[in-house]
Amino acid sequence: MDNWVKIQSFERYHQAELRKNILNRNEINAVILDEKDSLFLLGNIDLYVEEFNEKKARALIDEFEGLTKINSYVDLKPILLFQKILQEADIHTILKRKESNKYILDNYELYVENKDVEKVIPYLTGKNLKGWRNLLISSKLRQVKYFVDLLAENLINTVVIKKKDSDYHLEAVIIYVKNEDIERAEKIVRELKAYEVVKEFDNLPAAEKAEETLFLHKIKAINKKEKGKLKLFVEKNQAKEAEEILANETEWTLLKSYSNIAKAMFHKSILDETGIPSVIINDKDRTFLLGEIELYTEKDRLEAARKIIANL
Predict the structure, then answer these.
(1) Phi-psi region of 192 (alpha: psi -120 to 50; beta: other; left: phi over 0)
(2) For position 246, which CATH number holds?
(3) Residue 110's closest CA among 75, 146, 151, 147?
(4) Is the predicted pLDDT of residue 40 greater than 60, yes or no?
(5) Element containing residue 234 per DSSP (H, E)
(6) Do 126 and 17 fall within a single domain?
(7) pTM of the entire structure?
(8) Whether the Cβ atoms of residue 163 and residue 204 lie closer than 8 Å to each other
């Protein structure tokens, strides 16, 4: 069952069959493995889907069971603050912690009953977030995490809200801060006092590749646009090391283009497991979702990466 993941276990076969049919009707392949002992009826009946369909499958199953996931984030506090806002509006929520060996992000997930989804939408769009201001928006969860951590160090609370498209793919992540904190938060984000610029870029793909290169060397880097230039910031005590790494920067080359980001992320995860560095560049227009999603890898690892992807 390589490249398949278990999404749920059941005691009765018909429970698994019902959910399998729902997934099939939504063009998601699903397989049931019945491991119950035929004599003693011990064991599990497990439902599996292909790895790149996992998130969409889980969302469909949650919806079938009467719940819809409305938000998620790696840290608990921003989710708890959003939950409190909804509770004050008499909207009941359910908080779940998701643990996975594959992913370290999206640990905390917030759900509402299906009947309450329409009530939540004005909060997800920010319309009903009274007393909170939109600080910044990013398409990269890792970049958002860096800013949220920086604000927390300065005792500024945040609410993080994810926007997803109709296929459950991440479209944007928005950071909100309280009205009374907005000026201080903007100053912190603008000045990045403990950080230093190590490189400037004319285009986003080049900046994202450099950020990925530093991440592979365990250096936190923030991409920020200033005066028409994209600037890459790192903490001052790591600036020299970062400059040396970027001076000998890995040459990235295009491995494959996609129209589906889930497929690109799945292939990236496979390459990560085999020790081949890769980076996804998403040039889709955020309004019309046009354009290509591209997966790059190191030039000298291109052939090895091609073989791995071809043999999936």
Answers:
(1) left
(2) 3.30.70.790
(3) 75
(4) no
(5) strand 229-235
(6) no
(7) 0.69
(8) no
